[in-house]
Amino acid sequence: MSRKIKVSLEARKNRLRRRLIGALNESLGALGLLAVAVVISALFIYLYGALLSAPALEVREISVRGVKELTEKDILQLANIQPRCNLLAVNTDAVARRIAANPWVKNIYVGRELPGRLVLDVRERKPIALVKQTGNFYLMDAGGFIFKKLSRTDDVDLAILTGVNLQNKPSPLLAEALKLLETLSADSYASLGTISEIHIDEVFGLSVLTDRGLHLKLGRDNFTGKVQKLDIVLADLEKRGMKNGRLFVDLADISKVTVQRKDEPGKAQEQKKGPQYRI
User: How far apart are CA 81 and CA 78, in angstroms?
Assistant: First the structure.
């Protein structure tokens, strides 16, 4: 009996010894891995620090691309990049935020080109119309986004959108007006002249004025069909010899287009009695 007890105790000691040795080996292995990780991290930190101070990686050129309304000088001032700084040390996100603060900037990409070039690729907003509110004009892009107040330094010649209330949610008619403006500004409609104004009325729809005296009443819908009908109307007016001069063209009802000459705008009564043509 005592012999069995001695054998059992010896077996337990051996198991405990093996466990301790295993735990010690695992601890030494973990410490070894930790030491290797520390050495590698220190090496990376050293190499990164060396790269940040390497003269070969100094910013020698800043390339500004995509500017039209803004100038290269404007972008460089906004970027505020310190001279002779290291290319890898430039905080590209911070530079992008500073440049994007300008209302003309729609998108900005800041990139690096080794060994020493920083790229500032700008995508500007393209204004398509002016909107007048409380005595001031504002620039609007094709998406209906008003991005800045018109200033004396803005060299633009754009159509004016009237009937727009900036305080209200944009109406579907506004989007239609912007599409119509792009369509009528194409070369194929150059005979209309330059679009000077588009008026938006939630009840009566869209009206268009051109610098050649055309006043187009287009209603609230089917603007594509009405623009196509306008080609036929203009061809017919040319045959009648009345394409030139101030004309009011009512396209609100595409089935009965009427045209009225308005050569004497100061005589409203005579205009009402003037000749009308149905096409």
Answer: 9
